[in-house]
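Input/output pair, single chain:
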Amino acid sequence: MNRMKKIISSVLAFAMLAGTIQNPVSLNSADAASTQNYAEALQKSLFFYEAQQAGPLPEWNRVEWKTDSTMTDEVLGGWYDAGDHVKFNLPMAYSASMLAWGMYMYPEGLKKSGLMTSYAQNVEFVMDYLADCDKGTEVVYQVGNGTIDHTWWGPISLIQYGMEDSGTSYESAREALKASKGCSAVFGEMAAALAAGYLALDGQVDDAKRKGYLEHAENIFKLADASKSDDVYNDSDASGFYRSSHFYDELFYAANWLYMATKDSKYLDLAKSYIPNLGRMLGEGDVLAYGWSHCWDDTLQGGMLLYAINTNDADAVAHVKKHLNRWVNGDEAKILPGGLRWLTTWGCLRYANTAAFLASVAGDTILKGEDNSKLTEFAEAQINYSLGDNPDKRSYVVGYGENSPQNPHHRTAHGSWKNDLDYPATNRHILYGALVGGPGQDGSYKDNRGDYISNEVATDYNSGFTAMLCKMIQEHGGTPDPSFPQPEKHDGPEFFVEALSKGADASGITVSFKITNHSAWPARAQDNISFRYYMDLSEVKAAGKNPEDVVIRCDRDQSAMYASSGVKPAVISPVKQYDGDIYYVEVTLPDGRAVLPISEGMQKCEILLALVMPDYGSGWDAENDPSNKDILGAKGTADAEGTVTGIISKYIPVYIDGKLYYGTEPDGTTADGNASADPKPDVKPTDKPSAPASAKPTDEPAVKPSPSEAPTPATAPSSPATVKPSPSASPVPSSKPTSGSEQPGSDSPISSEPSKVLGDVNCDGKIDITDISVLSLALLDKKLPEGQAFTNSDVDRDKEIGLTDLSTLKQYVSKVITKFPE
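Output:
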């Protein structure tokens, strides 16, 4: 979803582990402020970062529903930002710096709890990506186009198929943005992260590799400082998602980390030189800004804490105190029942937990020896609230504690096979450890995937939370779950056949078979899927005929629609004997691209077969066929639009590579279809291919079926065919589709006229988060829409465009309201 977290918040504010746990030790403390198991929470938060991993997955990745993905990216690795598939380096680098800070500041608890190795692996993974983004004279600052990426809702492993099925170029969707200047904020954040990683990973990775991180940090910082501007960055696709409000704070943050890593006083001098250019407190003259929160777009407060630690400067220490007191006293953020400091609508928990971490670091460094009881109480209240110590007794961390979220806003965890945010109703995977946005200002919360404001997840949401967990483990202990993660229970077979009898009489039977791909462990293109239709042909023998002479007529082969894109059509076997009078016909899709869980049109592939008595005689008995137990006489189920869903019968078994995958054969042999694929590569965590690896069946394809260019088989004949096809032959398609409704994708014409729909700010014919983004940027830049866009934006109909329109539009898109004010 197009997330304008800080942008919208700023506008509104202006208006108003099993394999990786080594010798875990339970660390119990009598003065623990909560009964929460902080080690388990951290264990799961690290799992969330593994769920966000891009590129070739390391062998220690624990997410069974993930596989290698976006393997053609210019820079492999890194984290997908949130529930989308873009690698936005500004929030990613910020998140990496926070994980590194937590590890650097509070290593003892990690070591004693057995989580240090897992933590270090995750930090190293993202540092490798950030280092690889440094190309010497220019730096890659984003991989993936956010605007294009948000046109499709599906699992990351099938992103190329999904993009192109939506009518989009995959190459455009995965473009790499790079520059040598005009990107001070993102370059500064990347430099800060690499310097922090250099410090945190001391003793955890090879020193030569750490030195490489520092070298890249210094080079990227040099570019950031040489061109003090965000003009290039804010004029790119990044602006619609993570627009930078300022850059001196990131330079200040990075310079402090670089001083800590190098001990070179030039960085401390640079940090001091940036202070006059940092933000000022609104209405307080020349006073440095001590409000808001340390976050991906505002690192002033974290930078000032580091500066105070590095210099013990009295003014810096006083600034940090003043900032933290605003949080403790509820002057900066409203205090909700249960103690949560609620700062703003979007992602309130990430701000609260990050403020808690800064309070903890300050108490353990520049304020050590003072009475920090209020700071401690505040800090622990934020993380404990997130974990379940709140009036609703609700955990806001997926898969942790009681009453945790089930439906975070995350494409791959949702596992839709229809490109549909609302289908299926419940997420198919548990996104363990993900911290959702959190409650509203009144403390209310709904576990609703469509409410991305409360249920968004992101790497920056978890970053301060993860760092704070390091502190809590060191202070209060905890024990990781040695059996985590358990294999997920599937919600049904990933591959099955949906069948409907189209009619049976004495001459034979016609059956529609729809081979269905609902794979999610991981979602994948599966070659060599087949099904068998078992028949009792005793009546054929009784008529003196040879069962092998039964006529097989294919009246529809949907896989042939994609032949022009190189997809192999279905292969239909001759009649084969199974045992005694039991025979079968097997239909195989050799090419998995013929059926993909990416859209309504692509998730099923129909094969329509007619089985006819030899020599077109009579005497066929369909009732004794083993595969007819569920489908003979069944009508299927029709939805509101009249679409009929067939019968999923276990008696029409499915095979993969010739091995029974799901269903029951006539002799009772059964398979439940609950086996996950194992596509993960056998590579070491630090291994990095020098060039993109060859695509696997689960990765993006080199060639994508193009339904709009492919023919559809001719309409089924009204009488039995006179020619029996050879076993390997496929029907010859006609030059045109038989019906637009059978063709995957949309045939709807695209109008060249601008949309005249209230709320459709960008006039694209629909109202969604993109309209919030466009209107937010227009208000920030003071460049209001014109013409029809102005009329569509004026949702309160007062002939003006302002914050009220933005707020109302946000409520409408979030389904808080169902219509605009009259």
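The chain has a mean pLDDT of 86. The first strand starts at residue 87 and ends at 88.
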